[in-house]
Amino acid sequence: MTTTVAKPSRVTWVRRNLFRTPLDGILTIVFGSLGLYVIFRGVLFVASGFVNGRWQIIDDNLKLLMVGLWPVQNLIRIGVSVAVLALWAGVIGGVIAGRQKRRGTSSIEGLTAMQRASDLTRRFGLVTATLLLLLSLTDTAGPWIMVLSAFVAGVIGRVIGGWIGVRFLPIWVSRLFTVVMVAVPIGVFLYLTSPWLPDPLPAARSSEPSAWPLAEWEGFMFNLTSAAAGIVLSFPIGLLLALGRRSKLRLLQGISIVYIEFVRGAPLYVLLLMANVSLEFFVPEALAPSRVVRAIVTFTLFTAAYIAEIVRGGLQSVPVGQEEAGKALGLTPTKQMRLIVLPQALRNVIPAQIGQFISLFKDTTLAGLALGILDLLAGATAITQQPDFRGQGLIIEALVFVGFLFWVGSFTMSRESQRLEKKLGVGTR
Amino acid sequence: MAASPSPPKLTSSMTTPTPEQRVPFWRNVSFLKWLFQLVVFAIVAAVAIWLYNNFRNNTAESGIPTNFNFLTNPASFDIPGADFAPTERFQNAFVIGVLNTIRVSIVGIILATILGILIGIGRLSKNWVVRKISTVYVEIIRNLPLLVIMTFTFLGVVLQLLPRIENSWTPLDLLVISNRGIGVPWYQDTSGLALFLVLLVGLIGWWLIARWRHRVSDRTGQPSHGGLIGGAFFLLVLVVGWLLLGASFTTPVVDGRQIAGGIRVDPSFFAVLIALVIYTASHIAEIVRGSIQAVPAGQGEAASALALSGFQRLWNVVLPQAMRIAIPPLGNQYLNLIKNSSLGAGFAYFELTNVTQVTVGNGSPAVPAFFLALVFYIALSLITSAFVNLANRRFKLVER
Amino acid sequence: MSDTSPSVFADATEGVGDSIIELDHVDKFFGSFQALSDINLRIGRQEVVVVIGPSGSGKSTMIRCINRLEEHDNGRIVVDGIELSADVKNIQEIRRETGMVFQQFNLFPHLTVLDNITLAPKQVRRMPKKEAEEWGMDLLTQVKIPEQAKKYPGQLSGGQQQRVAIARSLAMKPKVMLFDEPTSALDPEMIGEVLDTMKDLAKGGMTMIVVTHEMGFAREVADRVVFMADGQIVEVGTPQHFFESPDEDRTKLFLSQIL
């Protein structure tokens, strides 16, 4: 008597996964109905908001939430900057992909267009859908043009980068290329904040300066840029601290440890509050920094300690034999570190670094509360007090919107990080 | 036989450098290290002196003191929900702040751990519904900023959803839920100390009975059920003690604009606590899941091959090993929770950061005040770290 | 084996020849990959069967199906009269009667050696602690490492750990012992001590199914040798027949590669 196997039928699946034991069955019923109820109420909430105009508060204030008080006629600067940055990012992505193709480690070689399309949709579909949702709430063509031009620029950049990546370039060309790539974001930043550079379109030119000083950056733009600035600026500091902590020189080690443990024991919120009231005591009068600068400085000094620990973990993960091999080859300690140990160490902890960036991105909301900067969250709570919307309990809609934006960003980045981890094969335990 | 040339003799001058031939100091490794340290120290010292000078000049100009004398000044603010008068000293306010921080941290850690373990195990459940719900919970909450969650629980739930005192919800006639606080039934007519002693007796009895049952089990081989029988004894002691002491419950009722009877849970405390618990539990769930999955599959297989049941396998083999893996990251989450309690300052909960902020707003010098607060937080961090390290060392696997 | 020297190992007293394990037309799929096809095998009481074959041939999968660490998809597996099915009661009974020794030892690192051995007897067979510990020390003596009783697995060498693993499985007084490449993870100088232990077991009359690459062991101790490749049993025979005059070409090819 043989027991033939069939592919588990629907009924078997239900029985095994939902009703294995009586207790199981009870759990299924209880949690199932709870889940369905929550989903039902959630969908009702979102949908009815459209019907009875409760989402209007977001609609009316979208620009405020995204970029703060940036003057409308000067948004073109942002558009140009975003496009340039998209081009830049595309080039970087293309160069990486091209290098992988050259080395044979590419994960996209040989995939059909359909497969690539479906892969990209799975990874970035959520972000794209959110972007389209936000665009649909705007009234003008401006944002659409900006997003479209950014997309086109990104694709062009990717193609150019891919072309560059597969080729072997002479040293001076690749050095020049690196310099250019580092200069681009700095240039964009200067362009956005200095009023002396002209506007791209004659029509937009006016007699008044149209750049917006860093001090007034608000909205979601603040969250994004302060997080980016924080992580980028904190990296060299964190690297030095990690090396200092590993050094055998007592003084260096002592300073590093004290700094790292002090900063890691302190809540970021308290540091921001301190920066709000006491930073000006530590610098001469002339340099008294604006709130945004204070926030970014605090983010940088704070994140540096965590980056230091991450890099330290990375350095520990490189087998001692690597350094010894370098020594045996006659390399100086600096060269050993720079050419052999550091590349491996940093590569091993890329997921942890991305995790720190995501963490910082979410923590930028604290600057809103501590320093009074109108970031996305603070702006959202503020708009509920506008005369048109006061007293209707719209805080919930506002918070749902804010939470959604942060969630999309964080979720996508963390999924990409997991994907990278799998590709690099260097997960932590 | 031709004499083969004798090998050159090694003279002492060829093997060791004579005292006059020492390594030139600018290539000497030890000297260079020392020099490098000196340079770094000089740079750090220069920066520190510059900062300090700025600090001195600026504070001298603005006339703000830089010592800790402000602590003995009267506070000029009061703290709702605590016995604190505006005429009392700042340092008392600080103490209350620290106590509030500790209170929300301890309760938060306990609740978050329980919830986190349940959800973490739920993610590994064989039941599809439970698994999906746990996964959705973790994936959503983990990716939200804590401040968004806390703003939601405070502004959204407490201020919006909870009714005004006149219209409080009174489920089961046991609780009073309003936006001025939540009334919970509490004991009365008896000293807290006596009840505490009853609790202690019950717990000790539980432990003793469990031990006795384990000894019996060792002797006879039958399952001990120590936890269950001990637990029953514990409940018995509680009930008997309650009756003997003549204790009674008071249920909270709405009395005008107050809640009379029972104990009142401050709405700010509630909002901050719930936000911290929801957020931290999602991270703890991931840690629990990860540590159970990190136990090698072979361990479970060996246990199954020995005919241990599912529960026996979990309890004796998987969980002990998972727990060891989980201790360091769990400790990290507890530290994060303690630091995140500082966000309560934005929501009218008078923990340490809030007290410090109000103090500074009322004219105390900022730098010493915040410095003090930071010292407390760092001290709390170090104490918690020490406990975690202790636990880690106690449970380490023994290897050669 | 017919030589029944008295020892703590011998338990099966029925005559040699009754089959204690039957596999009938057993198939196993991993997704679309067929790991076992139409396996038919009968193992007699007190028989020592050695299973050899190239990697990926399904040898491990086959013995892991016997104690339900893997689920077979088609066919019938019967252990000591109990049919292996989805019935939890049957599975637990079969697991009580079979013992398994793993390639990676899988000792419980948080328990001492003695606790490793006594855990299952106490929990499953409800043995009192003292009795279990005496029994455990007996077994440790039989595998020749009684002095390690209070140590933790992490403090033992590989060979010692595997011997503890054998003692741990024997503590449940199984009727059949399953070995899944027991020496493949050991340094060469420790393989001998483990094989010696297994030889003692065989001499004592235990029914054993051993998946291994140790041909010397097969020649010395096996009653039958089973050769598997690509999920099928290619050839079965006595060691003499097998190593000196195999029938199948596939067998000859394999032997030429390893001998």
What this model shows, in words?
The complex is a heterotrimer of chains A (429), B (400) and C (259). Chain A is 74% helix and 0% strand. Chain A is an all-alpha fold and 429 residues long. In chain A, α12 runs antiparallel to α13. Chain A is globular. Chain A starts with 9 loop residues before the first helix and ends in a 5-residue tail after the last helix. The N terminus of chain A is likely disordered. Chain B has 400 residues and is mostly helical. Chain B has 2 domains: 222 residues, MetI-like fold, CATH 1.10.3720.10; 63 residues. Chain B contains 12 helices and 7 strands. In chain B, the strands form 3 sheets. Chain B has a 3-stranded antiparallel sheet. In chain B, a hairpin with a 2-residue loop joins β1 and β2. In chain B, α5 packs across α8, α8 crosses α10 and α10 runs antiparallel to α12. Chain B is extended and about 100 Å long. The model of chain B has no long low-confidence stretch (mean pLDDT 82). Chain C is of the alpha/beta class and 259 residues long. Chain C contains 9 helices and 10 strands. In chain C, α3 runs parallel beside α5, α4 packs across α5 and α5 packs parallel to α6. The longest helix of chain C has 16 residues. Chain C is globular, with a radius of gyration of 18 Å.
Run of helices and strands of chain B: HHHHHEEEHHEEEEHHHHH
Biggest sheet features of chain A: none
Taken from the alpha-carbon principal axes, the silhouette of chain A is globular
Q: What low-confidence regions of chain B span 5 or more consecutive residues with pLDDT below 50?
A: none
State the end-to-end distance of chain A.
Answer: 46 Å
CATH top-level class of the largest domain in chain A: Mainly Alpha
The CATH architecture of the largest domain in chain A can be given as Orthogonal Bundle
Could you outline the blueprint of secondary structure elements for this entry?
The complex is a heterotrimer of chains A (429), B (400) and C (259).
Chain A lengths: L9 H9 L3 H30 L4 H12 L7 H29 L9 H24 L5 H25 L4 H23 L25 H28 L3 H16 L2 H11 L12 H27 L2 H9 L4 H16 L1 H14 L1 H7 L4 H8 L11 H30 L5
Chain B lengths: L11 H4 L13 H34 L27 H33 L5 H15 L3 H16 L14 E3 L2 E4 L1 E3 L3 H29 L5 H19 L3 E3 L2 E3 L2 E3 L2 E3 L1 H28 L2 H9 L4 H31 L11 H10 L4 H29 L6
Antiparallel strand pairs in B: 1-2, 2-7, 3-4, 5-6
Helix pairs in contact in B: 3-8, 3-11, 4-8, 5-8, 6-7, 8-10, 9-10, 10-12, 11-12
Chain C lengths: L18 E12 L2 E12 L3 E5 L6 H8 L7 E6 L2 E2 L4 H10 E4 L11 H11 L5 H14 L15 H13 L5 E5 L7 H16 L3 E5 L3 H7 L2 E6 L2 E6 L1 H6 L4 H10 L1
Parallel strand pairs in C: 3-8, 3-9, 6-7, 7-8
Antiparallel strand pairs in C: 1-2, 1-4, 4-5, 9-10
